[in-house]
Every structure is written in structure tokens, then in C-alpha cells.
């Protein structure tokens, strides 16, 4: 057992850090620090810088553009990226549909889609959840009927993140009504520009528009847009969801936020002195930092284990990551709320496009607090995670 | 970075787990509790035979040169089996003082007896009003010619009843809460002027309140610098905290395992109560708490070797906070999920809960250490 990073790993961290310092557009970084939303352009610009460097799809196999890094290197890269902070690669393309295509897709599909995912020539979105299918995803109803060399797709998806920017969607569709619910699902990809696709924004409680409803009305899709085998979509979906086990803890994001809390708390006064000097506040912050340190170590245990024994059998500790990671992210946003106190109230209607930034540094703190309630809901709610631990780990 | 045990460490783990599986089930433990002093000399000698009592000492001193990871392995195993024997007091704390500050002569006088199991030690540190502050010392050590004379009262000295040698913290100069002027002394338990009042503790161990009245000891009894040993005390107590973190992880593992087995077999309303989602989620949260504790126990073990004492202390404090929170949750919920049977002396789970609870109140509780981390400006 040796818990220290090797010299090589430390050097790698320096390399990554200095690349970010030299290449992340300062305005992009500032907006992330302040919890503002980025424009499509700002995100794509950064992703192309990353891709040019060869780090756009770092965890893919080398033949598709990956880096061949060790699991510890991936961990370091992610942590630095999150804590710098710089925008993380678009998960829907890079972490979700990409691996499904290079694992289950045919050569044609790999050639057609993978380079465009890496360079974000196509912005992908995820068509999984439906109004009646949240945690019980396999009950989904969106239908794809085969008609000659086409699929005809009808139905509705929801919570589709950033669908307003999307060029492509990967979609779970029911292709066999008679089979057991998990067995009749296929994984189909198609253009969001297709006739019959309608995107309707959903405004979330923070005032932002991150998610959407997507309607399919007799959308015609070429048959060859099926990935893998017909009616095997559920397997691919499980593969896709199991791929992102360690990124979900978002340790770097929380680290960055704790830096921000300390920074603001040493400026904002309470009782005539900076709130960081208030014992009760400081202890709450310390409690959060300690939880985060424990999570970081738990994550490193999972990372080291994957590096050694492969990703086949998940380390039981990995189920801790989602629950604790989301709780800590939420705590950090709560602490920021506490720091700014009554100045949480003003609602900055123009904040995101930058037109009213003079308004100030507090503008996004309440929205970010509201917005972060989502992290214990998405990606398998924390209650689902507890079901998973009870069944898969404890055998209950 | 590597979290796996190496070959030797794996063998160590197998050997101690094997020993305890054979000789330390819950029924055997009850018998050991009734032996003189409240623990088993036979088991102690078995630990000596396997080299576990000499584990952290240098080979030159008759030990086996084990490091923090080795102690972590042993303490986890001792926790899992709810072991009564004074490993912490003798090997971790007493041994720690000897390793870090003992002269060759002091080591020659004390280490062989520890290693072969013939001698045990106890740490006489806590005072009536000192609570968790290691520098809060009123017991005095006054120079008398070449000798020292110790006067004062120490409380809840674990293994104080049985120990052959007491490691005593005492003030050689300055006022009660001064950080300098504190020394550490090796006092034979049978020295004239040592009076002990012994009692069992809540968790089935034994401790003593000890009064020192004009206890005269020779110059060979001084460990380190008699006027400035707070850093030494902090270092050894940090090692004790690290060991307690590992012991707590073992205790939590076994508590969770026992609880999960229980709710799988206990039936109500015609089904195993473990089929109820509210209980499943509680057990899952116990698992999360235990894993976070394990991570921080590893972190603390690693921190034991930090060069910078402030960083070490801060990391160990953070670990003790996480362990404190986790052990409270796991311990309390283990009782809750057992229901009425968990409230009985007869069931094993309550004894795990009690040991966990006493660990929380040893060498600084959650609030105490959280404040330390907060005052240090956090964890960076």
C-alpha cells in the first residue's frame, strides 16, 4: 500500500495544469467560477482546443483517438479539469454514445460518428428518460417501427439536457411490444434536424434552460442508424450508464467550490468581521472539507482498483461515489448561500448572456444552489443508488 | 499509488485473522473477560509468538520493523474480533514512546519484555480537567538530585491495573496550560507512592485512576527532553488515534456484517425484515459511512509518516472526525436494526456499539478534532 502519487504522476499533473493555464479562455473560466452558464460557442471552442491537443476523448481506446493513460492519469486529468475549472467534455458524446459506438457499432458507424464526436462537429443529446419513465427507465414507450429500410419513430423524451444545441440524439426506442420490457428496446441514433422532431424547453427552478422535452412525430430514420442488434438496446444502455462510475463524484468541482467559499468568506463580513472567522461557519466548512477528503480517497481506491483489476467487476466502494459526491456538491452550494446571506435574493435576469454582469458576484449563487438539487436526482437518484448497494453489495 | 497490500502484508493479515478466528469468537471473549485483569494472557502470548507484539519495533531492537500499514492491519483485525488485550496501550502507545524517544538503554530495558509478551505498559495522561488537550498537565515532576519526584493524579488509564510500567506525562516547569515544560517519564507500576483504583470500562476493558504521591524515579526514567516533550506526546497520540481509526473500521465492518446477516434472517410479517426498503436504505447508508471511514483510516495511516507535524496532526484530526461520524451512525443503526435483541448484553452487537462509542471519546472527539481542522484553515 502506497498512497502517494508517483513522481511521474505528479509531473503529469503539472503538465495538465499548465496546459489549462495557457489554454482555457479566461472568460470561460471566470464564468464557471461564478456558476454562470456558458454559451454553445464558448463550450465548443474549448472542446476543440482540447481535441487538438489530443485530450478530447482521453479515455477512448487509442485507435479511436484516446490517450492510453493509466486510470490514475485519467483521475488526475479530471480532477485538474474540474478544479481549474474548465468545461468538462460533452458527456453525451464523449462518455456515453462514443463508447457504445466503438464497442457495439459497425465499422461504417465508427468512421462516420467517432471523429465528429471527438471534435464536437456534432453535439449529441441523450434520449432516455420519458414522462412516465424516470427511475423505471425500462418502461419507456417511445416507439420505433420498421418500415422497409426506415424506422418510423413516435413518442416523447424528457429531461433532455441541452437538446437546444443538439445535432444528434441517441435514443432508446421500443421495437418489440411483446417482449419483456427490457428485451424489446433498441438503441437508435438520428439527426435532431429530422422532420417531426420538436424541442420544447423546460425552465428549471434556477431560471435556466438546461433541459428540454423532445417530441417525435413520425420521424423517419434510416434503418442503418440502429446501433448493434435490434432489441439489445437495454444492454447497451446499461453499459453506457456503468461507464461513468468515477467521474460522477465530481471531487474537483467540489474542491473548486470550496476554494470559492473560502475566498468569499474572507471578504463578506458578519458581526463586523469576515465570516470565515466565525467559529460555527468555519466548523461547518471544515466538516464539508473532511467529507470531501474521504470521498477523494474513496474515489482513488476505486480508480486504483480499476487500474489494477480492470473495469469488469466494480469495486463495491464505487456505489458510494454518487451518493456522497452529490451530497457534498449540494453542501458546498448551501455554504455559498450562507456566506452571501441576504444578498442571495436579487434575481439577475440577464446574468447568463453577460449583459448585466456588473450586477455582481453573488448573482448566480442562489440559482446554483437551486440547480444543484438535481445532482441527487439524475444519473439514478440517490434512493436508487441505495437500492443498488442493498442488492449488489449487501445481498439484501 | 497503490491501495493493495503487498505479499508480506497479506500474510500478516491472514495470520492475525486466522489466529483470532480460532481463539476469539464471542463466547471465548466472555471467558477472557473473567480472567485476571480482564484479558487473556494465553492470547497475548499467542500474539507474541506470531511476532505481533514486536511488529513496529526496529529489527535492531528485537522487533520486526513494521510500519503504519502493518499496525493498521493488526488494529483492524483486533477491532473486528473485539479484542480486549492491551495492544494499543502497550505496543502502539508505550512502544511508540520508546521507539521515538527511548535511549538504547531504555529500549534494551523495555522492548524485549513487550516483544515476548511478558510485560505490558499503560499511558497515564488524562487529568481531571485536561479533557482532550495534551498540554494541559498539572501532575508535576520535580528534580531531586539526579532523581525526579512525581506528584499528581491521572484518570482512566487503560490497562493501568495490569501494566508493569506506566508512561506518565508530567509538568517540569511553567503553568497548567503552557505548551513547554512537559516531560514524559517511565514509572514502574510498583514504585512507592503509586496508588491505583481499578475498574472495568463501559466497553469491557479495564482502566485505573492512579495517584502519584512523592514517587521517586531515577534519571533512566526520563523519556526525551523532560522540559519540552509536547511534540513527542502529540506524535505518539496521533499514532494512537490512527490506530483507533483502524480499530473502528474493523468494528464497523463487523457491525455492518452482523446487522446485514440479522436482517436477512429475522422474519416479521412473514418475510425477512431485510426485504423492507427502509431497512435496506439504512443498511446502505451504514455501508457508505463505513467505506468513508475506511478511506480516512488509510489517509491517517499515510499521514503518520508526514514529515511536517502540523500537516500530520491536521490529517489525523480529519480522519478522527470522519471515523467519529461514521462510527456513531453505524453503531446506533446497528442497534436500531437489531431491534430489542440489540439492547441485550447477550447479543454481540451491543458490545461492538459500546467499543465504538468509547473510541469516539478517546483522544479527542468529533467536535474537538473538527475545531482543530477549522482552526488550521481547512485541509489544503
In short:
With 396 residues, chain A is an alpha+beta fold. Chain A contains twelve helices and ten strands.
SSE order and pairing:
The complex is a heterodimer of chains A (396) and B (380).
Chain A: H1 7-23, H2 26-33, H3 40-53, H4 71-83, H5 91-104, H6 107-118, E1 124-127, E2 143-147, E3 150-157, E4 168-174, E5 185-191, E6 197-202, E7 211-222, E8 226-227, H7 233-242, H8 251-265, E9 269-270, E10 273-274, H9 279-309, H10 318-340, H11 365-371, H12 382-393
Parallel strand pairs in A: 1-4
Antiparallel strand pairs in A: 2-3, 3-7, 4-5, 5-8, 6-7, 9-10
Chain B: H1 7-23, H2 26-34, H3 41-49, H4 68-80, H5 87-101, H6 104-115, E1 121-124, E2 140-144, E3 147-158, E4 165-171, E5 182-188, E6 194-200, E7 206-217, E8 222-223, H7 230-265, E9 267-268, E10 271-272, H8 277-303, H9 309-338, H10 349-360, H11 366-375
Parallel strand pairs in B: 1-4
Antiparallel strand pairs in B: 2-3, 3-7, 4-5, 5-8, 6-7, 9-10
Helix pairs in contact in B: 1-4, 4-7, 5-6, 5-7, 7-8, 7-9, 7-10, 8-9, 9-10, 9-11
Structural account:
- The complex is a heterodimer of chains A (396) and B (380).
- Chain A has 12 helices and 10 strands.
- Helices cover 44% and strands 14% of the residues of chain A.
- Chain A is globular and about 75 Å long.
- Chain A has helices at residues 7-23, 26-33, 40-53, 71-83, 91-104, 107-118, 233-242, 251-265, 279-309, 318-340, 365-371, 382-393; strands at residues 124-127, 143-147, 150-157, 168-174, 185-191, 197-202, 211-222, 226-227, 269-270, 273-274.
- Chain A has a 4-stranded mixed beta sheet with strand order 1-4-5-8.
- Chain A is α+β, with helices and mostly antiparallel strands and 396 residues long.
- The two termini of chain A are 31 Å apart.
- The longest helix of chain A is centred in the C-terminal third of the chain and has 31 residues, at 279-309.
- In chain A, a hairpin with an 8-residue loop joins strand 6 and strand 7.
- In chain A, helix 1 runs parallel beside helix 4 (71-83) and helix 8 (251-265) runs antiparallel to helix 9.
- The model of chain A has no long low-confidence stretch (mean pLDDT 91).
- By secondary structure, chain B is α+β, with helices and mostly antiparallel strands.
- Chain B is built from 11 helices and 10 strands.
- Chain B has helices at 7-23, 26-34, 41-49, 68-80, 87-101, 104-115, 230-265, 277-303, 309-338, 349-360, 366-375, and strands at 121-124, 140-144, 147-158, 165-171, 182-188, 194-200, 206-217, 222-223, 267-268, 271-272.
- In chain B, the strands form 3 sheets. Chain B has a 4-stranded mixed beta sheet, with helices on one face. A 4-stranded antiparallel beta sheet of chain B has the order 2-3-7-6, with no helix packed on it. A two-stranded antiparallel sheet of chain B has the order 9-10.
- In chain B, a hairpin with a 2-residue loop joins strand 2 (140-144) and strand 3 (147-158).
- In chain B, helix 7 runs antiparallel to helix 8.
- The longest helix of chain B is centred in the middle third of the chain and has 36 residues, at 230-265.
- The radius of gyration of chain B is 21 Å and the shape is globular.
- The model of chain B has no long low-confidence stretch (mean pLDDT 97).
- At the A-B interface, helix 9, helix 10 and helix 12 of A face helix 7, helix 8, helix 9 and helix 11 of B.
Amino acid at each position: 500500500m502506497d498512497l502517494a502519487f508517483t513522481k511521474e504522476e505528479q509531473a503529469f499533473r503539472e503538465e495538465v495544469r499548465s496546459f489549462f493555464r495557457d489554454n482555457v479562455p479566461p472568460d470561460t473560466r471566470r464564468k464557471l467560477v461564478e456558476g454562470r452558464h456558458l454559451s454553445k460557442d464558448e463550450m465548443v471552442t474549448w472542446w476543440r482546443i482540447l481535441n487538438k491537443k489530443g485530450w478530447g476523448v482521453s479515455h477512448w481506446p487509442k485507435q479511436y483517438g484516446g490517450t492510453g493513460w493509466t486510470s490514475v492519469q485519467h483521475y488526475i486529468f479530471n480532477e485538474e479539469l474540474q478544479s481549474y475549472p474548465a468545461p468538462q467534455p460533452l458527456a453525451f458524446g464523449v462518455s456515453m454514445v462514443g463508447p457504445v459506438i466503438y464497442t457495439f457499432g459497425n465499422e461504417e458507424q465508427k468512421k462516420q460518428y467517432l471523429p465528429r464526436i471527438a471534435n464536437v462537429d456534432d453535439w449529441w443529446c441523450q434520449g432516455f428518460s420519458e414522462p412516465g419513465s424516470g427511475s423505471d427507465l425500462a418502461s419507456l414507450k417511445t416507439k420505433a417501427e420498421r418500415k422497409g429500410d426506415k424506422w418510423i419513430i413516435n413518442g416523447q423524451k424528457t429531461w433532455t439536457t441541452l437538446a437546444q444545441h443538439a445535432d444528434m440524439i441517441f435514443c432508446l426506442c421500443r421495437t418489440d411490444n411483446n417482449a419483456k420490457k427490457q428485451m424489446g428496446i433498441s438503441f437508435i441514433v438520428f439527426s435532431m434536424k429530422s422532420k417531426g422532431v420538436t424541442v420544447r424547453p423546460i425552465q428549471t427552478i434556477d431560471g435556466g434552460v438546461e433541459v428540454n422535452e423532445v417530441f417525435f412525430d413520425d420521424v423517419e430514420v434510416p434503418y442503418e442508424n440502429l446501433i448493434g442488434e435490434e432489441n439489445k438496446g437495454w444492454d447497451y444502455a446499461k453499459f453506457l450508464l456503468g461507464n461513468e462510475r468515477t467521474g460522477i463524484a465530481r471531487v474537483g468541482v467540489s474542491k473548486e467550490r470550496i476554494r470559492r467559499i473560502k475566498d468569499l468568506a474572507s471578504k463578506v463580513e458578519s458581526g463586523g468581521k469576515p465570516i470565515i472567522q466565525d467559529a460555527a461557519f468555519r466548523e461547518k466548512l471544515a466538516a464539508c472539507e473532511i467529507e470531501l477528503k474521504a470521498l477523494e480517497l474513496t474515489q482513488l481506491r476505486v480508480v486504483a482498483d480499476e487500474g489494477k483489476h480492470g473495469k469488469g467487476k466494480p469495486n463495491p466502494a464505487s456505489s458510494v461515489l454518487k451518493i456522497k459526491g452529490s451530497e457534498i456538491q449540494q453542501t458546498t452550494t448551501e455554504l455559498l448561500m450562507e456566506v452571501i446571506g441576504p444578498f442571495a435574493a436579487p434575481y439577475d435576469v440577464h446574468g447568463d448572456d453577460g449583459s448585466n454582469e456588473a450586477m455582481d458576484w453573488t448573482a448566480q449563487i442562489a440559482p446554483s444552489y437551486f440547480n444543484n438539487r438535481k445532482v441527487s436526482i439524475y444519473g439514478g437518484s440517490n434512493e436508487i443508488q441505495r437500492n443498488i448497494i442493498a442488492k449488489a453489495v449487501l445481498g439484501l | 499509488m497503490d491501495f493493495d497490500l503487498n505479499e508480506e502484508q497479506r500474510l500478516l493479515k491472514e495470520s492475525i485473522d486466522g489466529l483470532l478466528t480460532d481463539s476469539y469468537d464471542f463466547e471465548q471473549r466472555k471467558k477472557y473477560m473473567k480472567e485476571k485483569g480482564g484479558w487473556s494472557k494465553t492470547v497475548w502470548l499467542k500474539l507474541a509468538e506470531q511476532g505481533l507484539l514486536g511488529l513496529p519495533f526496529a529489527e535492531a531492537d528485537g522487533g520486526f520493523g513494521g510500519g503504519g500499514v502493518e499496525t493498521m492491519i493488526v488494529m483492524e483485525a483486533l477491532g473486528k474480533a473485539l479484542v480486549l488485550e492491551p495492544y494499543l496501550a502497550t505496543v502502539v502507545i508505550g512502544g511508540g514512546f520508546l521507539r521515538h524517544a527511548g535511549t538504547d538503554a531504555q529500549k534494551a530495558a523495555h522492548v524485549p519484555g513487550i516483544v515476548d509478551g511478558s510485560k505490558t505498559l499503560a499511558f497515564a495522561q488524562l487529568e481531571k480537567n485536561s479533557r482532550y488537550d495534551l498540554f494541559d498537565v498539572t501532575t508535576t515532576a520535580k528534580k531531586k538530585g539526579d532523581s525526579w519526584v512525581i506528584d499528581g493524579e491521572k484518570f482512566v488509564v487503560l490497562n493501568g491495573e495490569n501494566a508493569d510500567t506506566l508512561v506518565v506525562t508530567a509538568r517540569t516547569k511553567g503553568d497548567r496550560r503552557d505548551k513547554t515544560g512537559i516531560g514524559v517519564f517511565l514509572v514502574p507500576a510498583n514504585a512507592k507512592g503509586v496508588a491505583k483504583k481499578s475498574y472495568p470500562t463501559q466497553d469491557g476493558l479495564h482502566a485505573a485512576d492512579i495517584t502519584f504521591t512523592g514517587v521517586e524515579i531515577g534519571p533512566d526514567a526520563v523519556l526525551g527532553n523532560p522540559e519540552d516533550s509536547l511534540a513527542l506526546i502529540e506524535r505518539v497520540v496521533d499514532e494512537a488515534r490512527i490506530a483507533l481509526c483502524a480499530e473502528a473500521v474493523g468494528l464497523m465492518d463487523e457491525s455492518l456484517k452482523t446487522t446485514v446477516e440479522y436482517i436477512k434472517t429475522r422474519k416479521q410479517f412473514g418475510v425477512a425484515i431485510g426485504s423492507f426498503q427502509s431497512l435496506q436504505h439504512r443498511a446502505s447508508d451504514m455501508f457508505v459511512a463505513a467505506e468513508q471511514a475506511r478511506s480516512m483510516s488509510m489517509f491517517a495511516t499515510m499521514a503518520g509518516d508526514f514529515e511536517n507535524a502540523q500537516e500530520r496532526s491536521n490529517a489525523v484530526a480529519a480522519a478522527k472526525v470522519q471515523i467519529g461520524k461514521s462510527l456513531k451512525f453505524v453503531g446506533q443503526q446497528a442497534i436500531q436494526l437489531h431491534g430489542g435483541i440489540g439492547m441485550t448484553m447477550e447479543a454481540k452487537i451491543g458490545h461492538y456499539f459500546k467499543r465504538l462509542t468509547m473510541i469516539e471519546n478517546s483522544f479527542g472527539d468529533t467536535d474537538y478534532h473538527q475545531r482543530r481542522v477549522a482552526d488550521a484553515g481547512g485541509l489544503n
